[in-house]
Amino acid sequence: MDSLYLLIPIALLFCAIGIKLLLWAIDSGQYDDLDKEAWKILADEEPTGGDAGGDPEKDTNREQNT
Question: What is residue 62's predicted lDDT score, i.e. its pLDDT?
Answer without folding.
Answer: 55
